[in-house]
Backbone:
């Protein structure tokens, strides 16, 4: 079932350097996800940080994916900060790892099942154990670690059937940006569940990647912690992308 615009939920988008990001509270996000999941609606959610919105500004195809999403939340302190400067008072950062954890807690209390898509096989096994330890009543309907190569048509059909047959209300997708957003957009209409792209959330919760201390998260320094942890892989994403975000954000605030 393809998700349609829900008249009960009026969207309030804020343009963040050209990408439409939803102005929502934590509870509003959780409520919408649970409602759509209960109906097994085919929808996808983009969790957008500075890297996402800069990519969207530079890549029209990726911008369309963000625009077509059923929800786009402000992950990353810079995105939430700019929304507050643009008039969305008290806008909080709605990030992937915390959203996944909060939702799993609620899903466990209402006997709702989830599906995990992405990550390495060992990461998935560790993640499932961690989730079941923290939330004993959580139903994990299935998990799949896709290969790095593109799936064949037959493999993709099998994955879609496995997810749909599992009865999961939500599919948590951890492939990294922009791969996870592309995958979700391609599968809206075929997967009967809400797909949420959560980036490195699987690795964080499994413990394969250490997350920044709480004080760094609260002070908008999580990006710096990740950069110091993986400088060779992430230097371009954070130094170049964050610099571009500052330039684009400055132009938007000045009306240029």
Residues:
């Amino acid at each position: 079932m393809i998700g349609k615009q829900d008249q009960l939920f009026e969207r309030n988008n804020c343009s963040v350097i050209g990408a439409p990001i939803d102005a929502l509270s934590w509870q509003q996000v959780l409520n919408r996800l649970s409602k759509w999941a209960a109906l097994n609606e085919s929808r996808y959610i983009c969790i957008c940080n500075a890297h996402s919105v800069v990519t969207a500004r530079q890549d029209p195809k990726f911008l369309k994916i963000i625009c077509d999403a059923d929800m786009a939340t402000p992950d990353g302190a810079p995105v939430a900060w700019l929304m507050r400067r643009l008039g969305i008072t008290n806008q909080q950062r709605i990030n992937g790892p915390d959203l996944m954890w909060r939702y799993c807690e609620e899903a466990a209390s209402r006997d709702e099942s989830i599906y995990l898509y992405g990550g390495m096989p060992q990461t998935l096994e560790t993640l499932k154990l961690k989730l079941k330890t923290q939330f004993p009543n959580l139903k994990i309907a299935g998990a799949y670690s896709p290969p790095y190569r593109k799936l064949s048509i037959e493999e993709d059909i099998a994955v879609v059937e496995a997810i749909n047959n599992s009865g999961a209300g939500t599919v948590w997708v951890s492939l990294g940006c922009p791969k996870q957003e592309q995958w979700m957009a391609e599968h809206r209409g075929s997967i009967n569940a809400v797909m949420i792209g959560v980036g490195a959330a699987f690795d964080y919760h499994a413990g394969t990647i250490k997350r920044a201390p709480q004080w760094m998260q609260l002070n908008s320094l999580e990006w710096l912690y990740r950069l110091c942890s993986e400088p060779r892989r992430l230097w371009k994403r954070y130094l170049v992308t964050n610099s571009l975000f500052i330039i684009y954000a400055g132009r938007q605030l000045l009306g240029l």
Remarks:
- Residues 13-206 form one domain.
- The mean pLDDT is 91.
- DSSP finds twelve helices and eight strands in the chain.
- The chain has one domain: 13-206.
